[in-house]
Amino acid sequence: MESLVIRQPDDWHVHLRDGAMLALAADLTARQFGRAIIMPNLVPPVTTVAAAAAYRDRILAALPAGRTFTPLMTAYLTDTIDPDEIAAGHRDGVFTACKLYPAGATTNSAAGVTDIRNIDRVLERMQQIGMPLLVHGEVVSPEVDVFDREAVFIETVLAPLLERFPELKVVLEHITTEDAVRFVETGGPNLAATLTAHHLHIDRNALFSGGLRPHAYCLPVAKRRHHKNALRKAAVSGNPKFFLGTDSAPHPRSDKESDCGCAGIFTAPVALESYVQVFEAEGALERFEAFASEFGPAFYGLPLNDGRVVLRRENLQVPQEVSRDGQHVVPFHAGETLSWRFEGAVE
Ligand code: NCD
Ligand code: ZN
Question: Considering the domain boundaries, does residue 164 fall inside one?
């Protein structure tokens, strides 16, 4: 197969940042995706309808003229967030979903939720109005090994939460374990998961390949190889509970290559190329379109995109660095040659 034409895909989990990084991140995501779920972990976090609407305006203003892209905004849940604010934002079409960061779990999560019981009233309301909860599924207790944090979260927080709110729509974001795959597979139709491209390619050995590799570090951290293989099987399975969410999370090169390097992998420059390579290797190219363009909107209850895009089977040399406005970021697959190239919309 020399080219693949698919319905315009969406990215169901992305960090576009703000300020100097925003133009770079927004342009590269809008180049490949029609819509994206925008993560709210800015400083300060996006906790009000007004802040989300203003951020949405900044994203649209940062895009080059002529790009059609719809940012789908999320609310950052805190211990004290008001259920009325969430519901009003959802009713007015500003908030598509809410994001749960356990406090301290990842980048800019300090204002997150310290105990899930603190937001029971919010979850109750979300269940009532059919608003999805997007979950960073890791416990933060220092007693729990960093490689076990997702599995322990599922058992001790997520399973009980779904028992208390059986109708709540939940997306377990950027899953990294076989445990998560099984949990989502056996859950109800209101439970789904996003899969990043990087977790389909790397396992934890990538962090130590020939030396310490900060650009392979993200949260949840990559796990053992058998976990990666379970994620790949889930991605290509055709099960609509698993769909595309890059978790593209740019950090300036200097913040990654540091004494205390930030978590996050910048996938946006080569997102579709990276995913399609996995589908090809698994002999499942014919299932790529549903994963990238159909299962996400179906879960969120949104229409499918109308347009089509083309990927060509051509070598793509991934640059060592992507730069703009004084921001220098190392992309996922830097220095590698990929075998697909995203070409753009079909005229
Ligand atoms: C994300 C970031 O940098 O904002 N980092 C990451 O490693 N994925 C936060 C997140 O999604 O956990
Ligand atoms: Zn993320």
Answer: yes
